Amino acid sequence: MKIVFMGTPEFSVPCLEACVNEHEVLAVFTQPDRPKGRGKKIAFPPVKDCALKNNLEVYQPEKLKTKENYDIINELNPDVIIVVAYGQILSKEILEIPKYGCINVHASLLPKYRGASPIHWSIVKGEKITGITTMLMDEGLDTGDILLKRTTDITEDMSAGELHDILMNMGSKLLIDTLNNIENIKRIKQTGENSYAPLLNKKMAKIDWNKNAFEILRFINGLNPWPLAWCKYNGETVKFFSGELTDEKSNNKPGTINMVNKDGLFVNTKDFVIKLKDIQFFKSKKMHISQYILGHNIDQNSKFE
Asked: Which PROSITE patterns does the UniProt record give (predicted)?
């Protein structure tokens, strides 16, 4: 099958590699190169790196919805366009070019968690099961007909980074199953409860200590490795990577630190005390609390804000 592939981040790479191995990739569309890191050096999107290694033609338009890009894709005349976390909306005209339409690989069980950050929000919202959906795209936001689904469990201590890697590899396998059986797959209209997973940002990542312990721990896990849950301590930002529930009921105001030792930082919530382990205080590096307290003091009964 002749494919035009559209994708940008690491999540998209296994799907591109699978398409290269199993089918014919005519060209790759990805986002423009961007400054990255503290040095703001220009970096290629991961999909571009993969495409170049496979000697594929790469296009990086700032805006996909132009006549020039339509003409390029129309001239390529793909059987199908594959879209995996591309980051741009396809026009109606582009959607109508391929014989088999445009197929999106989405990291949730649609219609739940449509939008940009389904992996994070499925953990934050306390889902026990999530998965991958291949979908025939239409003009709506993740509203097209469902082709295939695969599910996976979300464990209690799973981070967004861990779930990302599971779904990333699951997605490439489901995509190939979809492509290889495209003419026989029964399309299913999206029905039932739907939800939206908005793009995360650092402002949204502030911890509300007035929530219960489970909600806070899910929040921390769901925002690891980015943008990382945070709060303020003595006016400075503290970021959290992991934690666990204790059986100790909270006996002070939410956010108050009960105890600090080499095992963790014990903090009150609405109902139970949680133990926070891997943290990043101020401008220091990520470290276990046992390392941090060797050279710094954290006052018992002080409060996170």
From this structure: GART
